Amino acid sequence: MDRANGSLFSGFILLGFSNRPQLETALFVVILVIYFLSFVGNSTIILLSVVDPHLHSPMYFFLSNLSFMDLCLTTCTVPQTLFNFKGKDKTITYGGCVTQLFIALGLGGVECVLLAVMAYDRYAAVCRPLHYMVIMHPQLCLHLVVTAWLTGFGNSMVQTALTMTLPLCGRNQLDHFFCEVPVMLKLACTNTFINEAELFAVSVFFLVVPLSLILVSYGHITHAVLKIKSAQGRRKAFGTCGSHLLVVIIFFGTLISMYLQPPSSYSQDVNKSIALFYTLVTPLLNPLIYTLRNKEVKSALRRIMGRTTD
């Protein structure tokens, strides 16, 4: 590991949008508001999934895990971003950068796997309704979630080690607002072809494979729903699955645009905008999508509100 030629290395400088101070001031307010709304929204879904018996089902068990991951992701990146945007100090310690990279990368991998698991859950609910509770029994659900977490953070451990051991030759300015693998690869002062190839292969595994499984699941779901004679039944099935599919499109769309291209071809302004969307806007959209498009969640929220007012 090259810590910028040794003992003088104290950390990295996150440039962010430092060349546009007025933009940073405006973004500080916007990010703070979105972070607060995201925190409230995801915390509400976790709370409802725990306290409301009507939501003690596999779907909401997975959804509460998704909300917990979104809470962790925003908390991992946003406070440091707000600190850097507010003041003149743009630094992050070496240990802070490693931690941020490890957690953000791990959570991204977990969410990729979990969204595929949620698609399988919807497939079982729509295509095998009579056997749904037998197929998605609590022990299997727990195993699937544990597998998602172990897979995501196992990969993150390897990626973080490979990335943070690259020689930097004194370079410590990251043209970004948090530590991310493609940005770290651009900072390295050695040929990163092997790292880029390995990152691409891992990205295919965590992005293309789960997305393909999701699309296959929804192909079967669409075929099954079209066979339902009741228009109300079709609307209910499409409504439940539509929320998940919308989350999938937003999540995978942003990550594919970030990771399935060589770091050398990145436009940093575009990449920073996409990263902001992925780490900030997506965690806000998830609870909104699932709440506004889901009658069960809205009913649970009304029941909880009713208890508090009694």
Write the layout of secondary structure elements.
Blueprint: E1 11-14, H1 21-51, H2 58-86, E2 91-93, H3 94-127, H4 132-135, H5 138-164, E3 173-174, H6 181-187, H7 193-226, H8 231-259, H9 268-292, H10 295-309
Membrane topology: Multi-pass membrane protein
GO molecular function, one term: G protein-coupled receptor activity
Pfam families: 7tm_4
Describe this structure in words.
- This protein is mainly α.
- It has one domain (11-305): Rhopdopsin 7-helix transmembrane proteins (Up-down Bundle).
- The chain has 10 helices and 3 strands; from the N terminus they run βααβαααβααααα.
- A 3-stranded mixed β-sheet has the order 2-1-3.
- It is globular.
- Residues 3-7 have low confidence and may be disordered.
What attributes characterize this protein structure?
GPCR_Rhodpsn; G protein-coupled receptor activity; Rhopdopsin 7-helix transmembrane proteins; 3% strand; mainly alpha; transmembrane; 76% helix; 310 residues; cell membrane; three-stranded mixed sheet; disordered N terminus; globular
Outline:
The chain crosses the membrane at residues 26-48, 60-81, 101-120, 140-158, 200-221, 242-261, 273-292. The protein is 76% helix and 3% strand.
Architecture, CATH level 2? Answer: Up-down Bundle
Strand fraction? under 5%
Ends distance? 61 Å
**Strands of the largest sheet, in order across it?**
2-1-3
Number of domains: 1
What overall form do the CA principal axes indicate?
globular
